């Protein structure tokens, strides 16, 4: 006598599970997670902890590993990477700070890529209908490593935006992570060296790193302006 009553309940449960697992439900969950993460970063500003309040009882490899993990979590939650790179240099010096920052960069990119691939790809791929969107998707899908390497080397491309665009494409995990690690080194190194030499603003290392940051930023702005001018047409 219990079976007829159980069947409608089982059917309702199955429909609820399908609705929660639908592409748009997963995309909504991704949006909620990103908004919540950004809000927490604005409220608690963990970059201040990384730069000024690092636990004094931590040292050596454990401090570097924990910093890299915190760096990855912060970048996935939209904390600006330049602040974290400066903190890495100030805390660990040039070489170790660069290793920690690059590891955190790859970790944060991997987290963002995984969230975008799992929760956003199935809902967003059908929306790639415009000519420019299709072209960008095709470039990332067919030439993933080369395209992502170029994006990482170009300082004007927002880190989080590149992560989620790659996640929506058909780019593989390995090309994405390798290109992120290699392409992030030059700009990351400049900020890390600047952070490590912040107490000596007249030192050659500090001046060279700041010069690289200024020149690369100006070059990125100029290229972006040229691209915008071309898109507007004569």
- Pick out the low-confidence regions: none
Share of helical residues = over 70%
Which class of secondary structure composition applies to the elements?
mainly alpha
Q: End-to-end span in angstroms?
A: 78 Å
Kindly state the number of beta strands. 0
* Mean pLDDT across residues: 77
Which shape, going by the Cα principal axes? globular
Please indicate the percent range of residues in DSSP E strands (runs of 2 or more): under 5%
User: Main beta sheet: strand number and arrangement?
Assistant: none
Task: Report on the architecture of this protein.
- The protein has 234 residues and is mainly α.
- It is built from twelve helices and no strands.
- It has helices spanning 3-20, 23-44, 46-51, 60-76, 81-92, 94-124, 131-142, 144-153, 159-168, 173-183, 185-196, 204-232.
- The radius of gyration is 22 Å and the shape is globular.
Secondary structure layout plus pairing:
Blueprint: H1 3-20, H2 23-44, H3 46-51, H4 60-76, H5 81-92, H6 94-124, H7 131-142, H8 144-153, H9 159-168, H10 173-183, H11 185-196, H12 204-232
Helix pairs in contact: 2-6, 4-5, 4-6, 5-6, 5-11, 6-9, 6-10, 6-11, 7-8, 8-10, 11-12
